[in-house]
Amino acid sequence: MNAKIALIPGDGIGPEVVAQAKRVLDKAAEMSGSTFEYAEVYLGGCSIDRFGVPLTDEAVETCKSSDAVLMGSIGGDAKTSPWYRLPPEKRPEAGLLAIRKALNLFANLRPAYLYPELKDACPLKEEIAERGFDLMMVRELTGGLYFGKRYTEDVNGVKNAVDTLSYNEEEIRRVAIRAFDIAQKRRKQVTLVDKANVLDSSRLWRSVVAEVAKDYPDVTLTNMLVDNCAMQLVKDPAQFDVVLTENMFGDILSDEASMISGSIGMLSSASLNDTKFGLYEPSGGSAPDIAGKGIANPIATILSAAMLLRFSLDLDREADAVENAVRQVLADGYRTGDIMSEGCTQVGTAEMGDLILERMG
Ligand code: IPM
Ligand code: MG
């Protein structure tokens, strides 16, 4: 097959980890007899430096004309970087929100899985970590508070800031369908997380998702309030299969889910629209403090490349090869600094890439 892949190295550790993931994609292309053509795209701080804006129309067009996008990370240190002296709509994060919207990436899949080899890095009590967990967070990504009307006004000399949380039933339905489709291929449970005891939007989520559930009689739907979910994730994460939630709750809960899996450097993510197209990126950020040092963990980006192979290119065998190679590297005792534990061998970013490539077969 011929595929066109847009690469967004971005800022901070982004370029280093994307470089390793690209080597893995090249190997997957070789294994499957495919040709991957890459186009490099600027997003975030590096785009501000080059073009004065965090996202250009050309960048959007290049992504739209690709089969999939692989991204590193964007943004810098908010205290020291000049990017954060710009107005909010010109900062790196605005570019990320704009590309999500422009590509209609409404379903954000964030798997959180505890590798048995990384139990020592899990901050939960041993008896909880011992049970392991494997959940898929499905976060709505193009609606809610992130995209509602916002402004700051002066009311009789008192500053007043407004953010709007709004969802229509179509926005809820399409992401719910994604979540149920995924659950059908997993352990057939969906937990809808909301704040239906307070918010109207959450009550609409409950009724629309209950409707969707009728088409999936083999999948069990449970409702859970978001504050309870935050507790349950640290108390008994093994209870979750697919967690479906709106944009802001998903942002917060997905960081919590990644933390309990040992390191944010391990978790991949996929942002999908209603076709096979997707943008794939590690769940972690740009980590400016360790950028350029060659020590960042490339595994999350490499696993994101595996998701790209699976979801956008239907190269399941090659995706399996990548995931198995990651498991094997961990079993062989190799670790980057963020997941290092006693008795293991510490390696840098490129060496981790080498070790995974060697194990892909
Ligand atoms: C994420 C990030 C972004 C978000 C930021 C960088 C705007 O935290 O992808 O989770 O809040 O969606
Ligand atoms: Mg986040």
Task: Explain the overall architecture.
- This protein has 361 residues and is of the alpha/beta class.
- 40% of the residues lie in helices and 20% in strands.
- The protein is built from twelve helices and 14 strands.
- It has helices at 14-32, 45-51, 57-64, 92-102, 126-131, 169-184, 200-213, 226-235, 247-260, 299-311, 316-331, 349-358; strands spanning 2-10, 35-40, 68-73, 107-113, 134-140, 150-155, 158-163, 189-194, 220-225, 242-245, 270-272, 278-280, 334-335, 345-346.
- The strands form three sheets. Strands 2-1-3-12-11-4-5-10-8-9 form a ten-stranded mixed beta sheet, with helices on both faces. Strands 6-7 form a two-stranded antiparallel sheet. Strands 13-14 form a two-stranded parallel sheet.
- A hairpin with a 2-residue loop joins strand 6 and strand 7 (158-163).
- The chain is globular and about 60 Å long.
- The mean pLDDT is 96.
- The structure holds 3-isopropylmalic acid and magnesium ion.
- The site of magnesium ion has 2 residues, from helix 9.
